[in-house]
Specification:
Pfam families: HATPase_c. This protein has 12 helices and 12 strands. It is α+β, with helices and mostly antiparallel strands. It folds into 4 domains: 78 residues, no CATH class; 91 residues, PAS domain (Beta-Lactamase), CATH 3.30.450; 76 residues; 136 residues, Histidine kinase-like ATPase, C-terminal domain (Heat Shock Protein 90, 2-Layer Sandwich), CATH 3.30.565.10. Strand 11 and strand 12 form a beta hairpin. The longest helix has 43 residues.
Length: 444
């Protein structure tokens, strides 16, 4: 028989402890009675009364010791069952059981507040997921769908009840679950075909691995961006074409009326020649415009090679003769870039800065600094600053009377082809504009 089979429980130990606590007094009482009288009947009666009183008091002690423990057990059981509303009463500080009851009450209140916060956050998360225009699907460890938001229902052309019994295999999503991180796919779903960005991640719940799929429709966003880009481009193209075709049309009408007159005026030849010169000039301008468009559309990919950036920057600055370009040289460093394209980008930016500076103090500066694995280049002018327009990087958009509208676009296209960025912003310390270029640089 093991030790646990005969060990007394807590209540029995409390009762036995109370009885043993009275044992010395009983022994002393028995000795006094034995010495005081030889009357056996009286002794037995006294002993019986003392025994009954002792057992009764011990039972009271046992009850008072056990009852709070049952209260604690009920409180802990309520916590285990998730009922955080139950509280222990008549607890006070300075009492051992009271201290425990108060701590359990505080724990219940903390757990209640935490559960309420989790439920509120879960409700917010559920609403956010429900309002997303991106399909979100969660699969359990067996591959069954356990969560699908309304966008996922539209994507798979099924409601939540129909999807609940489906697996990734039955829905044809096993290729999406094979993706390790992010991938753009050309494929068809029940709602249609197109380009989709699929993100796959894993998470754990109840010590089991689950899968999360996030599927975004890129086709609609790309179509909208393409539509907006065409609108901007066509608006600028239409403006440029109208600038050339309107005078050609007007001059052609004037010459037609002139040649229809009988008799012809004496100076008709000079008028016709002047009109033809206007038509020729506008046609030549239109030809230059198309040549610039071809240059922008046919920019070749970079052919990088190692170059010393400082020499390239000085060479680009010397080409601007209208203003003096001050150079605040940074550290000497080698870059793996296409020198012709990077120099052309710098020339375009310096030219734009010089154009702006001619309306100001005619000061242009070029400086560069290295920051970790990036080269930061700044072209600064003291001109009137940027115009209030969102079309600065729209091809053929220009605010200058004789501008081509491709300098900034070409510069940004070159910089981005090299993995960098180009931004424009007005100066905060003075009048003028800053063009900032960031290019990848070899690690130190």
């Amino acid at each position: 028989m093991s030790n646990r089979s005969w060990r007394w429980n807590y209540e029995s130990r409390i009762l036995l402890g109370a009885l043993f606590a009275t044992l010395p007094a009983l022994i002393a009482l028995a000795a006094a009675l034995w010495l005081a009288t030889n009357d056996v009947t009286r002794t037995v009666a006294i002993w019986g009364g003392v025994a009954v009183l002792t057992i009764g008091l011990s039972i009271v002690v046992r009850r008072n010791a056990v009852y709070p423990l049952y209260t604690l057990s009920n409180l802990l059981e309520a916590l285990r069952e998730g009922d955080y509303s139950l509280r222990g009463s008549r607890a006070r500080r300075g009492d051992a059981i009271g201290e425990v009851v108060l701590e359990i009450n505080a724990l219940a209140q903390t757990l209640r507040e935490q559960r309420l916060a989790v439920e509120e956050k879960s409700a917010l998360l559920a609403k956010v997921i429900a309002t997303l225009d991106i399909a979100v699907l969660a699969f359990d460890a067996d591959g069954h769908i356990k969560l699908a938001n309304p966008a996922a229902e539209r994507l798979l052309a099924a409601n939540a009840n129909e999807l609940a019994a489906q697996t990734a295999l039955s829905l044809g999503l096993q290729d999406c679950l094979a993706i390790t991180d992010v991938r753009v796919l050309e494929r068809s779903f029940a709602s249609g075909s197109g380009r989709w960005e699929v993100r796959h991640a894993r998470f754990r719940e109840n010590s089991r691995s689950h899968d999360l799929l996030v599927i975004s429709d890129l086709s609609r966003a790309l179509r909208e961006e393409e539509r907006l880009a065409w609108q901007r481009l066509l608006r600028v193209l239409g403006h440029e074409l109208n600038n050339s075709l309107a005078p050609i049309r007007s001059m052609a009408g004037t010459l037609s009326k002139l040649t229809d007159r009988e008799p012809l005026p004496d100076d008709w030849r000079e008028d016709v020649q002047g009109g033809l010169r206007v038509i020729g000039a506008r046609a030549e301008a239109l030809a230059r415009f198309m040549a610039r468009y071809t240059q922008l559309a046919r920019l070749p990919p970079p052919s990088p090679r190692a170059i010393e950036f400082g020499a390239l920057a000085h060479r680009a600055a010397l080409l601007e003769q209208r203003v003096v370009v001050s150079i605040d040289a940074g550290p000497a460093l080698q870059l793996d870039v296409d020198p012709d394209q990077i120099e052309q980008a710098l020339i375009n930016l310096i030219k734009n800065a010089a154009d702006a500076a001619l309306d100001g103090g005619a000061r242009v500066s070029l400086r560069w600094r290295r920051n970790d694995a990036e080269l930061h280049i700044e072209v600064i002018d003291d001109g009137p600053g940027l115009p209030p327009s969102e079309n600065l990087f729209v091809p053929f958009f220009t605010t200058k009377p004789d501008g081509s509208g491709i300098g900034l676009v070409l510069a940004r296209q070159i910089i981005e082809a090299h993995g960098g960025t180009l931004t424009l912003e007005n100066r905060h310390d003075a009048r003028g504009c800053i063009a900032r270029l960031h290019l990848p640089a070899p690690a130190l």
